[in-house]
Target: Exopolysaccharide biosynthesis protein
Amino acid sequence: MSEEASTPVSPIERYMARMVAALQRLARSDDPNLTFSRLIDVMGRGSHRLLILVFTLLNMVPGPPGFGGTIAWTTLGIALAMIMRWPIRLPTLIGDRGLPLNLLLKLSERVAVAARYAARFSRPRLRWLTGAAATIPYGVFVIVVSLVMTIPIPFINAIPNVGLCVLSFSMLNRDGLGAVVGVTISLLGLGIAAAAIFGAYELGMAALGIVT
Model:
């Protein structure tokens, strides 16, 4: 038996293979048009943790004005559904928005390759931080970070989103240590965002003072 065949596949690799296969089936279908709601249907309306990762990855893709905010609200809704144990359903205003299937497929294929490399460092450990008991704290944290990411101030969302991406990746891979790293990155990003918001407020007040 070869070394590659004997190497166990990590949980994150299985999730990524599932995501790529689902998008490839959609791309080969008679109706390859992709929307937010259809992406959720393809991945499964009960796949909360996987979809949080998918949408944090999507938030790294440049999009038109308002795209990042839509992604943040969608991620928030998925986290709320996860806490409440609801199947994921989006309002029509968000659900009917189109997504670039080919771009998402290429992104997922690259992430699947990256997951194989990341699995060398990220592995199941401290599982109590990623198990069922962590679902509510995880969901609440995602909601809080996502709320901040809905604020339309340029560049403040990047670091919190990277943290959410690391966190969701680690939750799927049952890596408690990685989850701690993801939370730390998000908190750092939130601190920078708070400083940026406070700075914008102070500048605004100073400008009003000059005018008056």
User: Anything to note?
Assistant: The mean pLDDT is 88. The longest strand covers residues 34-35. The CA atoms of residues 108 and 121 lie 20 Å apart.
